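User: My instructor asked us to take a sequence, write out its structure as tokens, and then describe one feature of it. I'm not sure where to start. Here is the sequence I was given:
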Amino acid sequence: MIRVFQSVAGVLNETEELCGGRWIHAVCPTPDEIAAIHKTLDIPEECAAAPLNLETRPYVQRYDPEGALLVVLRVPSLESPHLSPRQNTMPFAIAVSPREHVVTISPVDTGVASEIVNSNWQIYSTDYPSQLALRIFLIAARQFIERVRALYREFEDVEAMFEESQRNEDAIALLNLQKRLAYYIKALQGNEAVLERLRRTQLLRAIPEEDRALLEDAISETRLAAKMAETAADFLNQTMSAFNSIVSNNLNAVMRFLAVVTLVLTIPTLLAGLFGMNVRLPLQESPYGFALILCLSALLSGGALIWLKRKHKL
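Assistant: Let's start with the prediction itself. The structure tokens for your sequence are:
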């Protein structure tokens, strides 16, 4: 699907005409749409198809000195319970064509473009491709910050449930959170490297002086998101280690209790076995023999229980 936007008085309006000063947003474009982008906008077909591979890592490339500039970032995907941790970030390409178009391409709707379209802020202008690209960089970084904060809240909920029940489902939920953070950190590190390269080089041309701060803000927000994700991952690792220790201690306590119960019950079992032998034994002629054996078993078992308790074995 391809949508075309043009800014009028600072507000984005959807149009169908492909000409200079437009923003073209393509979500999972078909081969025919990729061919149309290549033919109309002078953007190589491999440039348009690059972000459709879900494993694409962040990178920046200019195809020739005067050709299209392609910047591929990883951005958070829309929340869905059906997504695996690997799919929580998706490639998002921003291509600036020689005809002053900005083309954004993603395999699925990530919400980055929707935030620009639905905001109607007066700061977006398709007349300045570099400005629009920088705004997209900044929005992607801030979305990562919001997702990491949401992970913090989700982690607190799972942690509270795990403290109460220690179910396998809660442990798996913590593991999934850990995986999602790992993919966030990897994506943010790649995004930061790409933005740093754009700052060091002149690949993104014609950046107005007042917009250079946008690139610095995008880099700062990306670093902040990466730091938050790393801190959350460290905290999650420590918490899972603590939970593992708690589970291990609880298992040891249960095994110790069962060992004590087995030892205490062994005494009456031993006495019953001895007095059940087919040989002459004391008390076998006494009418009180059975009661005396029961009392002896209870006394010895109770004594063993008291001794184990004093030795802190119970």
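For the description part of your assignment, you could build on this observation: The chain has seven helices and seven strands. Try explaining in your own words what that tells you about the chain.
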